[in-house]
Amino acid sequence: MKPFDFIQPQTTDAALAALAEHSPNVRILNGGTDYVVELKHVAQSPGVVVDISRLQDLKGIEITDAGLRIGAGVTHSEIMADPLIAEHAPAMIDAAHTVGAVQTRNLGTLGGNLVTCVPSMDSGPTLLALDAQVTILGPKGSRQIPLSEFFVFVRKTALEPDELLLEIIIPKENLGKPAGFIKFGLRKGQALALVNAASAFRIEDGKFKDVRIALGAVAPVVIRAAKAEAILEGQAVSEDLINEAAKIAVTEASPIDDFRASKEYRNDLIEVGARRTMQAALAAANA
Ligand SMILES: Cc1cc2nc3c(=O)[nH]c(=O)nc-3n(C[C@H](O)[C@H](O)[C@H](O)COP(=O)(O)OP(=O)(O)OC[C@H]3O[C@@H](n4cnc5c(N)ncnc54)[C@H](O)[C@@H]3O)c2cc1C
Q1: 207 alpha carbon to ligand 1 midpoint, in Å?
Q2: Residue boundaries of the structural domains of the chain
Q3: What spacing in Å lies between the alpha carbon of 127 and ligand 1's midpoint?
Q4: Which CATH number fits domain 5-51: 3.30.70.2190, 3.30.1360.30, 3.30.43.10, 3.40.190.10?
Q5: For FRET with 264, which of 8, 46, 123, 168 sits at 20 to 30 Å CA-CA?
Q6: Residue 161, phi then psi, degrees to nearest 5
Q7: Residue 188 CB partners (closer than 8 Å, separation 6+)
Q8: Residue-wise over 110-121: b if at least 16 C-beta within 10 A, else e?
């Protein structure tokens, strides 16, 4: 690990001031479950590390006029135990449950997971399927963008070096939207996703509405399977259509072929994952 300066601000304003002062030679630290690993291997010092784990503005889960607000500093364990998430976005709990082991979930934050922006992140698909928005704070104030625009490329988000992720918002029209999440790894626990997936839709007058199918670990960033979504949208509910949409989802992905799994195997997982999450969303809609 190379030497660096360490700042632990107590307020968001102080954190933003530190980021502005030291940008671009500055990095944010929250739970540290990703970044400390990276820090150990860097060839050059990051300059200044700003620890944002004390910032109260990044904590808490609450209902606001906009929807369900989850602070970027909320941990995966807090998500798993939260009654509002259980009521309004239970698929997020299924996703949080699959992140690492209990120690990682106790320290690792939702914001850190999204900002790391690896294709296999486990919180991305469900949030994408629920049309989540993110609020970014920087020297010019705050801006809100869809999560789909936040993901730019592998380990690259829409954040500038002097900005931080404040919160994630699931819009109020999507609270309680039936959804399902699944993750496939080489083991049941402590394994990165070979493929993960989430689906969400409403059933109105016996037809699929507002269909979302999101896939992780199959492209540089978490993606929506738009053609598969279109197969279902506005159509009468049927298992056959779900099966067809799952097959189409495979054509929208470009999974890698590596030592952990072949491309062919990952394609099989995409079809199974898309199908099972659509079936889970249907079961939730019928419940
Ligand atoms: C053993 C182990 C197992 C793991 N298993 C999984 C797994 O199964 N699934 C999975 O998805 N992940 C897994 N991870 C990765 C990691 O735990 C998660 O991504 C976690 O949510 C990261 O959160 P953090 O608070 O620890 O982020 P940190 O390590 O503190 O930061 C990660 C990155 O995000 C930036 N950052 C953090 N918060 C903010 C913010 N609010 N605004 C701007 N930038 C910010 C940091 O600068 C850094 O670049 C695992 C990690 C370990 C060590």
Answers
A1: 38
A2: 5-51, 56-174, 179-286
A3: 16
A4: 3.30.43.10
A5: 123
A6: -60, -25
A7: none
A8: bbbbbbbbbbbb
Q: Find the 29 Cα to ligand 1 centroid distance in Å.
A: 9
Alpha-carbon gap, residue 40 to 49, rounded angstroms? 13
Ligand 1 binding pocket (C-beta < 6 A) is 27-35, 37, 52, 58, 72, 98-100, 104, 107-109, 111-113, 115-116, 121-122, 159, 164-165, 192
| Minimal-distance CA residue to ligand 1 atom 9 | 99
pTM listed for this prediction: 0.97
Domain 56-174's class?
A: alpha beta
User: Which tens digits make up the pLDDT trace of 70-112?
Assistant: 999 999 999 999 999 999 999 999 999 999 999 999 999 999 9
CATH of domain 179-286: 3.30.390.50
Give residues with Cβ within 8 angstroms of 275, minimum separation 6: 242, 243, 246
pLDDT digits (tens, 9 = 90+) for 147-158: 999 999 999 999
Asked if 201 and 210 count as a contact pair (C-beta separation under 8 A), the reply is yes
Q: Would you place residue 53 in the very low, low, confident or very high pLDDT band (cuts 50, 70, 90)?
A: very high
